[in-house]
Amino acid sequence: MGIIKASKLVHEYIRRDEEGNVESIQTALNKIDLEVQAGAFIAILGHNGSGKSTLAKHINALLLPGEGTLWVDGMDTAREENVYEIRRAAGMVFQNPDNQIIASVVEEDVGFGPENIGIPTDEIWTRVEASLISTGMLKYRSHSPNKLSGGQKQRVAIAGVMAMEPKCIVLDEPTAMLDPNGRQEVLKAVHELNRKKGVTIILITHYMEEVTDADYVYVMDQGEIVMQGKPREIFSKVDRLKKHRLDVPQITLLAHELREAGLSISRGILTREELEAELVQLYGSKKGNVNYTG
Amino acid sequence: MSIILDKVSYVYSEGTAYESWALKNVSLKIEDGQFIGIIGHTGSGKSTLIQHLNGLLKASSGGIYFNGRDIYEEDYDLRELRTKVGLVFQYPEHQLFETTIFDDVCFGPMNQGLSKNEAGLRAFEALRSVGLPESLYYQSPFDLSGGQKRRVAIAGVLAMKPEVLILDEPTAGLDPKGRDEILDLVSNMHREREMAVLLVSHSMEDVANYVQRIIVMNDGSVMYDGTPGEVFLHYKELEAVGLAAPQVTYLMHELKEQGLPVDCGVTTVEEARNSILKIFR
How many Cβ atoms sit within 10 Å of the Cβ of residue B121? Predict the structure, then answer.
């Protein structure tokens, strides 16, 4: 079984009036099936209100299945005795770094998690140091978090999760509030954790550019998985993504428009390098033709 | 309408060990009806700058002139300034508080001293212009989606009929469609009401797609001030201060280096498309 496996997972938000009668039911997750293999880098796309964050909260057992089953590292999240182990196995990072940092010194903030689960002091410090190194924040260990930039704060939050030594990290729009540099710092840190430490990553984002390096992408709409595949497959379907209120990376869009205009460019171009290579080749052969005929 | 900043400096915690200069000698002129983007990394002084424009922060030194009048003059009505220069903060939906959407939008004009009727008319107009369906007007703002809440919050500022609209990262956290909807809305406002609009953003692509002029803030000073094409030519310098250029701008520079005669001043997908197609014709 993969590190995360959902089978017909359902979540309903039920609103009740003052007497406890059901006023409305909103289905946020509708029979979700998915399986994530350990060590994978997964991205989840979907418009606001499509159910992404609800799914993320299920992976951390912050929400429990209404119907169906979700296993995290082989543990059924519906069983109460599993909750602590599940939260140790799957860490979470949220959008706003300011809501996740609690201590007045970076290293104390990172040590908060392991201290809470009763790790011996010596080991806490080992873990704090290792996680600060893995997110590139070691030199700020004795700084005050509120003097850091957004990207740095978010990396401290990620280090805090790493100190719990999770097998999997769920990041719910971790870059939404950051400037371009901060976004890059955070993504680089996350990719390194995935590559070097083998941590499974589930990245929820609204920035299409952040998804191009993922192993696999899920697209959600109205609580269902409506598309899934490798980034190249997903982003080759420009019109379908737009129907789900999403977009494609700018370069993919440009490649799409150039192809529509008659240039012979491959489908599903993701990066600048790919488009550059194709255009340079195309231009070379065009010039070649001109020389030949001329 | 114009706002002139004359050598404006602002110091946080002046005279203490934590003293820091958030603005250093900033001089700017914001003309009638311009659509301006303000970019800069976190902590570059963007937010401090915009809070000066409606008098929420008072410059430590220098002067600010709105329509030719010094806003720091003793008898200047700062209250009126704040209705003329509307400021939409980051995550403005967190400031919604009334029981119905309609009442929430009425709050601004009522505070301006307008009668209930007049405020109501303003609220209708503002809600219509942000494209919220009429069936929602009397519902709780808290039942709306993220993008809709944000539009209600923007309507609350529009209802005061500002001459200048300032938005601090209005698209943060929205999905791509929601992002386009808000920016199209702001762009329409700019055209139809001939309002000057200042857009603070971390998205270089959004800025390039919509604005006529970009002001780049770095370390409390204006680093660049020009059209998107001009500003993004300095992409290397922008990277050094934590910013970037739109992806298509990078592509054009790389193509040029490879010997393709494309235009490097390109900042949008449409411009890139046209410039590339031209060399294949």
Answer: 15
Per-chain mean pLDDT for chain B: 92
Site from A179, A188, A272, A280 to mutate, B interface, most B CB atoms within 10 angstroms: A179
Q: In which domain, by residue range, is A187 found?
A: 4-236
Indicate if A151 and A292 belong to the same structural domain. Answer: no
Q: Are residues A118 and A258 in the same domain?
A: no
Number of domains in chain A: 2
Of A176, A180, A251, the CB nearest to B173: A176
Is A164 found in the same domain as A283?
no
Residues A16 and A162 in one domain: yes
Q: Which among B87, B151, B79 has a CA at the least distance from the CA of B111?
A: B79
Mean of the pLDDT values across residues B243-258?
Answer: 94
CA distance A225 to chain B (A): 17
Nearest residue of chain A to residue B274 (CA atoms): A258
Please state, in angstroms and as integers, the Cα–Cα distance from residue B85 to each residue in A141, B1, B34, B154, B239, following that order: 42, 11, 14, 13, 32
Q: Which of residues 6-45 of A touch B (CB under 8 A)?
A: none
Residue partners of B152: CB distance under 8 A and separation at least 6: B93, B96, B101, B104, B105, B127, B130, B132, B141, B144
Q: Are B225 and B215 in contact (CB under 8 A)?
A: yes
Percent of chain B's residues with pLDDT above 70: 100
Give the pLDDT mean for A124-153: 90
Q: Are residues A161 and A284 in the same domain?
A: no
Do A275 and A230 fall into the same domain? no
**H or E stretch covering A8:** strand A4-16
> How many Å apart are CA B112 and CA A233, to the nearest integer?
54
Please give the Cα distance from A157 to A173 (Å, whole number): 13
CATH of the domain at A32: 3.40.50.300
Residue A159 and residue A284 in one domain: no
Answer yes or no: is A58 within a domain: yes
- CB pair distance less than 8 Å for B255 and A276: yes
- pTM of the entire structure? 0.87
pLDDT at B172: 87
A170 with A293, same domain: the answer is no
